[in-house]
Amino acid sequence: MSDSNIHQKRIYIIITAVAILGGIIVIRLFSLQVVNSKRYQARAEKQYVTPSGNIFDRGNIYFTTKDGTTVAAATVENGFKAAIKPIDVTDPTQAYAELNAVVPTAQADFLAAAAKKKNPYEEVAVHLNQQQAHALTADKIPGLTLYQDKWRYYPGGPLAAKAIGFVSYKDTTLVGSYGLEEYYNDVLSRNSDNFYVNFFAEIFANIQSTLFKNTASTGDVVTSIEPTVQAQLEQTIAGVQQKWSSQAVGGIVMDPYTGEIIAMAQVPSFDLNNYGAQTDPGIYSNPMVQNVYEMGSIVKPLIMAAAIENHVVTPATTYDDKGSVVISGKTIYNFDKRGRGPGTSMQDVLNQSLNTGMIYVEQHMGQAMFKDYLLNKYQFGKKTGIDLPGEVNGIVSGLNSSNDVNYASAAFGQGVAAAPISIVRGFALLANGGYLVTPHLATAIDKQDGTVKTLEYPKTGPVLQPETLATMTTMLTHVVDDGYHRAQPRYTVAAKTGTAQIANPNGGGYYTDRNLHSMIGFFPATHPKYLIYFYNYYPKNILYSIQTLGDPFFSMVQFLANYYNIPPDR
After folding, report:
1. pLDDT tens-place string over residues 495-515
2. Which one of 98, 240, 453, 511 is CB 3.0 to 4.6 Å from 445, fit for a cystine?
3. Which fold is adopted by the domain 227-563?
């Protein structure tokens, strides 16, 4: 090979090496300056070194509006905190007066901090904005220093509080507590160690990871919660609680096809930005997934559907309703103890919510079929897999025996208990083609490396045939139109109410004066868009669910129809 060829080959090698090196630098610079710009900006802000050596950081949680725009539900607020070195505070009373003029502060707390002369650092004010920080800097209070600070902030305050959760200390570490903050804590957490790394070391560090694989697991959580619908739901249930002096009221709006939770709310609730003001920690829990209730008559359509699926009954099947049935020596009554007589149809059973009719259905199904559908096919009482912490299994042990009373009671929703989200999932299959979906709030993770991970959730089925589903939709529409006389002028609505006795945990049996009201349904019944569920725990001086939840339920139907401009189907 000639000298010129060798020289030319060396030039090509050098050019190739430079090109590769340049490409690596460009990719790494893009990672540093664009993909991870927020993280490095945060590092830059840490020039205001705090005594802890760290500044709090965490990923965001987002609501999603109906047009697909994301709105912050949980974010990180930037600001300052003020601390004193007590030994340098020459006049504690004067120092307090100057601080209090800018940031209202408890005098006793400040003076107590100033008295700790051996301590090098005592925080006296937190969550300060830029204006307050400038004012305190101008005052030049002896012994007082300002530090860069960040903290968790919830722009909606109480909005979706029990679904979002909050951040609190576990030992000496800030972690997610309750709700999405806890469930997605590993995704939302940030590592704030290793403040400074040489620039070129950053460029060449982990080149293999940067170029060839994505190892990032942290990011922001995007949810399906629609903030306007959430606010409307919260306003609605607050009105129910106020009107009926209820112990608790809750509601869910869900897409029955995908399992996406559009809104989830309970009262009483709390303000996420002031969660520490609560004296009862029980208020932080989410009853939709962490409590179980005997659901009452909203279970009846699922039992009826199983019977129709297996040709045990049809809507026109009749029986002689005597108002009560004796099972193994125990008398079980209709809600009003009245009989409707011979010729009472299965449609009448749902329209008038007749317990005797559901016992007729259960007896003709047989215990094996009944149990198989309720526990296996509908998975009633099992965890749904919703992305919220603390979900509990239901109580269905009564069906593990052959006790006739247990099965008769379960046919109208007593004696078995489940979390509300479980009945929501079960009822959704009547609307979505017979599939058991996984209810969920998070739809995507916006990862720190700039990629988006769309979350996918399992669904099983179908467990019911289209003919059965069409029959049940028609029956439940008749329940609304003819049973409750609440036909909507522009939309068909398929729904059912339930009034269940509340178990007495102390003396056994049931309270005689306490009920759980519930109502669940979907609309438009012919082409369902949304499933709506309400529960009303221990309303005062009122007996039936349709009386306390009928107006709220149908007002929510109208709100959703108008807000989403849903085409009418009647």
Report:
1. 999 999 998 888 778 998 899
2. 453
3. Beta-lactamase (3.40.710)
